[in-house]
Amino acid sequence: MNKRKMAKLYVKMSPEKLSITDAIEEITEVLETIKEAIALDGEVRFLKRGAFEILTRQPRVVSNPVTRERMTVYPKKTVRFRASKNMK
What we know:
By secondary structure, this protein is an alpha+beta fold. About 40% of the residues lie in helices and about 30% in strands. The chain is built from 2 helices and 5 strands; from the N terminus they run H-H-E-E-E-E-E. The strands form 2 sheets. A 3-stranded antiparallel sheet has the order 1-2-5, covered by helices on one side. InterPro entries: Hist_DNA-bd (IPR000119), IHF-like_DNA-bd_dom_sf (IPR010992).
């Protein structure tokens, strides 16, 4: 689901009248706030919904399938959402 589809769904579910551009702005603000919180604390938890957390992937050696040349994939950080057991 992209941001525009999410905004349309948000407009339908919202009790007040919103335009799609206002909904997109609100969604962008929420996502930016979550990004900042993850960067500061390393984890953001939503009760009965789930948690966003930072994972550090380990470096590994892979080979190019065409040339069979071995190369190293460097470690990187990714964000993962883990859903709660209560979420259906």
